[in-house]
Amino acid sequence: MSTTVEIRKSVPIVADVDVLVVGSGIAGATAAVTAARNRATTMVVDRFGFPGGGSGPGLIGGAPTLELPDTMPDGLPGIPGEFVRRCEAYCNAPLLNHYFRDSQVMIYMWLRMMQEAGVQFMFNAYAADPIMDGNQVRGLVVENKSGAQAIRANVVIDATGDADVACRAGAPVDTRSTYGHPGMYFAMANVDMEEYEAQVVNREPNREDLRWAKALFQRELGRGVGRLNRLVSYFRPAWESGEYKIIRKVDDLGSILMDHGLFRSVSGAQPVRDPIRIGKYGIVGALVGVQGGKSHLSGDAAVMTSLEVGCRAYIFETSHFLRQHIPGFKDAYLHVVSSYFHSRGGRSIVSECPVTTSDAQAGRLYDDVVFVGDDPENRSAKEGEARRGRIEGFDFPYRQFLPRGVEGLLVTGRAAIIQPPVMRARWMIFLMGQAAGAAAALAAKTGTTPRALDVRKLQHLLHHQYQSPMGSNARLRELGII
Ligand SMILES: Cc1cc2nc3c(=O)[nH]c(=O)nc-3n(C[C@H](O)[C@H](O)[C@H](O)COP(=O)(O)OP(=O)(O)OC[C@H]3O[C@@H](n4cnc5c(N)ncnc54)[C@H](O)[C@@H]3O)c2cc1C
Q: Is there a single domain that holds both residue 223 and residue 367?
């Protein structure tokens, strides 16, 4: 039986700010710090009790500068660069694939930098309906322990990763991104690394088992075995006896797989200097991802719930399988699992100016560029002809933050992009956050809407204050930025 309940209620206004940032992952947290440093009163709301999103409770904290193009030899500029440097000062080492350590450092550093900038927080608060005045967003209603509460704002930034605010404000959204690929990270502790490396990592896989596994992966997923190749002789008997399935279908929703293998291990593809690993007993991590089916529907609560339940069972059973069968794991235990199930892509806005694969491949220029982006997959495809670092990339236009048909709203981070081209790399998410935060502050302080913003002023600020990479000096002169 399908029914509708209409709820009308008065909601107390608990804050009135220049800029309200919804979601405090990399994009939202960077946007909040940037807006506040540009003298906008700023509030950040998140459904969790702390910031970080995928890089915080999602535990994908390691390597925030992964895939950074050689055109930025000195690392990320501006606020993102400051953030990374300050995190690294705590770690006494580069942030590099040490997912669970770096996530905690990043959570702390976001809190600290937001507090220093004067950002107000409202955590454990779920974004509900935006406050609308015609097609203009004027703030947001949140649901938290105190009930429903309203926050008024001159400009709202949707950094939820799934375009939650834009969607409820009536903006058209797109769910076709082929890089949805949601997943979770887990780590096993007390692994006897010496035994594991001697028995598993440093041994060639049995050829017959490898052939069997390749056929299985092709049949089930249409792809190769990848970094799981060293484990084939262990998971084959378990698969055949029905004891443990390395690939697990969740109805028609998608296939769960430990698709990156075991970190610092199976393929040796991740040369990580991990101080925790030194010595006999160490920690081994793995990413569990979901592919195919409806796994791209990150805005569908029922789909995401079923997939998360499936992933949590898969992770526990995988940890049990590892303990039972993989050399070195006998005394290991499941040490940590991501707090939530989250996506690399998913629902995004239909923006005023979406960059397409052909735009990226052609290195298309836009006069409203806010930074130069780079698709790592496009880069490696071109590797033969143009080596890494010599590829110029493509312009990321300001209009990509603007949802169609809705005013007063900027969308940044994951939900501002449709993939491919692949723009989920965190260094680009940082730069998106910085640009959106600066734009929101400028719009709020000058009493204009994000759509009517003078983009040259924004570019000027991004270049002079934050050294956002926006092209050559000749290009900057052509645009009147210098
Ligand atoms: C499994 C996995 C592996 C990845 N691996 C890599 C990699 O190797 N390299 C790489 O560069 N990138 C990787 N990524 C991508 C990268 O992590 C993301 O692109 C990046 O974290 C996105 O940041 P974001 O700020 O846009 O969104 P998120 O980190 O998703 O942040 C969104 C925030 O909004 C909050 N929120 C959402 N909805 C609401 C709501 N309704 N109300 C209140 N708050 C809300 C969330 O709690 C969260 O804090 C990976 C992602 C995943 C999922």
A: no
